[in-house]
Amino acid sequence: MRRIGLRALAVPGLISLAILLVAVAVPLLPLADPVRQDVANRLAGPSAAHWLGQDEYGRDVLSRILWGARVSLSVAFAATAVAAVIGTLLGILGGYFRGVVELATVRVAEIVLCFPPLLLALLVVTLLGPGAGTLIFSLSILFAPGFARVAYGETLSARALDYVTAQEALGAPTGRILVRTLLPNIAAPLIVQFSLTVASAMVLESGLSFLGLGVVPPSPSWGLMIRGARATMEQAPLLLAWPCLALTLTVLLLNLLCDRLRDALDPRGRAAGRPGFLRRVLALPAAAAPGASVPGLLAVEGLTLQVPGPAGPVQVVRDVGFSLAPGETLAIVGESGSGKTLTGLAIMGLLPPAVTPVAGRILFTGRDGSVRDLLRLPEREMRRLRGRDLSMIFQDPSSSLNPLVRIGVQVAESLRAHGVAEGVKGRVVALLRQVGLPDPERQAMAYPHEVSGGQRQRVMIAAAIANHPRLLLADEPTTALDVTVQAQILALLAALKRAEGVMGMVFVTHNLAVVADIADRAVVMYAGEVVEEGPVAELFAAPRHPYTAALIASMPEGEADRLTAIPGAVPQPWAMPAGCRFAPRCAMAMEACGATSPALAEIAPGRATRCLRWKEMA
Amino acid sequence: MLAYAARRLAVSVALVWVVASLVFLVIHLIPGDPAELLLSQGGIAPDPAAVEELRERLGLNQPLWTQYVAYMGGLLKGDFGLSLQDEHPIADEIALRLPRTLELVGMAGAISVAFGVPLGMVAALRAGGPLDRALSAWASFALSVPVFVVGTLAILVLAQELRLVSAGGYVPFARDPVRHVALLLVPAGTIAFGLGAVVFRVMRSSVLEVLEREHVRAAQARGVSPAAIIRRHVVRNALTPVVTVVALHLGTLLGGTVLVEFVFNWPGLSGYLVRAVEARDYPEVMGIVLVISSLFVLLNFVVDMLYAVIDPRVRHG
Fold this sequence. Notes:
The complex is a heterodimer of chains A (618) and B (317).
Chain A: H1 2-25, H2 61-97, H3 99-111, H4 117-128, H5 132-159, H6 162-169, H7 174-185, H8 187-211, H9 222-231, H10 237-265, E1 298-309, E2 312-324, E3 329-333, H11 340-348, E4 356-365, E5 371-373, H12 379-385, E6 390-393, H13 397-400, H14 407-417, H15 424-434, H16 440-443, H17 453-465, E7 471-475, H18 483-500, E8 504-509, H19 512-518, E9 521-526, E10 529-535, H20 536-541, H21 546-553, H22 591-595, E11 601-604, E12 607-609
Parallel strand pairs in A: 3-8, 3-9, 6-7, 7-8
Antiparallel strand pairs in A: 1-2, 1-4, 4-5, 9-10, 10-12, 11-12
Helix pairs in contact in A: 1-2, 1-10, 2-3, 2-5, 2-8, 3-5, 4-5, 5-8, 6-7, 8-9, 8-10, 9-10, 14-15, 14-17, 15-17, 17-18
Chain B: H1 2-29, H2 34-39, H3 48-58, H4 64-76, H5 90-125, H6 130-144, H7 147-161, H8 177-211, H9 214-221, H10 226-256, H11 258-264, H12 269-279, H13 282-310, H14 312-316
């Protein structure tokens, strides 16, 4: 990633460098004197002696453009350098010492930002009179607060870092910490700010010169040249074009350099792909037509999901399968990174754009009794199922409700999206009452921030069950909530299930205690694979996979004498172990575990495990 | 909402007072005597009697404190003092010219939003596609052309070569509304050339960011159509940063129309300021700077109110 950023940087970087070199070398070049007048040949066109012609006083235009670059760039650079030194100093001091120092540095500097910049520059010019010195002075005042802000913000985050704290603890002198440790760490954004500021300074300088309040004639400056050429634009429009072109291209180049620099230093900021819901790739090979004999409500078969990685595509979910009967509750259990949430999103057809299904089927029996493969359903048909036959509740109710839209409107969307047009208001209130929201008539008019987290999740549930879905997917619906609220939400879901009868539920969670409360059967996932499956009671009483056993042992409410955490972490998808994916963390691992990847074996009707040594666990 | 507005208004009034005091202090605390500076044209030492007479007229011989009270008292009555050049009341001239500048800035803002917001939206929805890349490249270019270059070239092309419009000037609305608008559109369009690109960029990245939010996915999960998602769950959420940026730029423009007014010969506040700067007319400069800065503060107040309208959470903040 970084290398791409640097390569993109090369072109604008080299051109900028070339312009800089020309500006430095101008006195050495065999150019005409930029201020020598030749009134007899005023406004003369291009000639061998004057490649770009002569201006309103007969001065050589090419020479003035190049000398103008020198003037403009040196003013811009000098002003930016002064601003950078002052601003960075103020920002670092303010960010490092905080308190009164912050007030005296950063906050004072920010007063400057209360004035429109050109206005402030004009004020300074009034006081000091025009000229290059005044220009540099006023521009550096204008731009110092920008540097102070950047340095301040970066210092705030850098000073909390371990190595800065460590140096403080070791008693290093403050000055050395600031210069040696802090400054290099906040340099990157300051460099970006520098190139950005040079461009702005050039624009302001040329603007002031254009007004006749900047660089003093006869010194060549692009702004002054444009000012001069305006008067004669009818006779010699090209005279106007050259300095305009020079100025625009230089600023464009600096801006480009700045953009690329930012990308290279901070790859996170780079533009992401196109938004997910506008594009749903259905690049899957056709699967066997869903037979009419498929039993139950949902059957996931061989689901494999892939994301692009640094070294080719990576499978984040591999060959996952399970099934669900109407009215049944299935829990998908696993640590974060196990692929359980992606599996849920795949059922809804709401995978992020980077994740593509590459194999498998998701067979779903709709309300009309027909069986569809959700993985291959066109977006338009999928949308008709979402919120009606299939519903989903998300993990964080605070972010899954739009803060700017009233609660009632968001619940009503579920109804309206599926053709309900009359009596929506009454049904919304009834739904809110059903999920236990106090005073539903009034709450329907409330905004999400006006109700508690638990109530927000009740609202999400109300929206999800509005059309009596056949299948409700709940992705960690209680994780973001307080413990007492968790229990209430679980009770609500259980009550709804009883009321709805045939509604099946897939409950994605990392919390085994919740599984015991709510689910009939459970699928345990690890590192993108199903490792064990079975009825909840059996799974708890007699786990047949070491991972399940370890999860049960790490339950705070578990029956184990001692709480044991599972050592290590879920492997990263691009660094999967060769054999059994759990082997590196497994207490029972033997040599064969690292060599072969065990298959998911059915050990009893409705029970399966992916472990070579399952028999020893009995 | 009302309490929030009152609180913000109090802060704004305090800020205006701070700005007024600062402007006063800057003029009076800089090294050198304003009267002497004013009269010393071309490096020739001024006549001491004339300096003394001017000091008396400006009240510079009184203690700073007395001057400050007199200045603030004048401001409260809407009195900005008299011009040094022609003894014309400064407040009258500002009252005449300010509406013209506001009109220009307002029109420029309207044009920018009118094409920046929809184009930013379209580019974000087609992010990475050819249209998005073309629009983004155009925005980079538009942002790099200084506004006086755009204006000068616009005159060169539209007025000199194509003879579509006149090269600038001003006609009061009451005298000839059509010509008034025609003369307004070119300078406003010149400002909007760059400002529209800013709006475009902010809108584009804001929409992209909102599309990634969880509530958009939740709306999808309810089966809401893409059009309704964009209308109800994307546009309004994406507008908050746009409002901030547009307001900030409009504020900057209040003092930044200098160049455009100069290029198009638009008799607004900025032209007055440039003339005052050139003549070193301190009372005029102080008055104009104060008015523009106060408008800047007022604009920030309006933006805060707009936030409260867009985002219900702010009202309670």
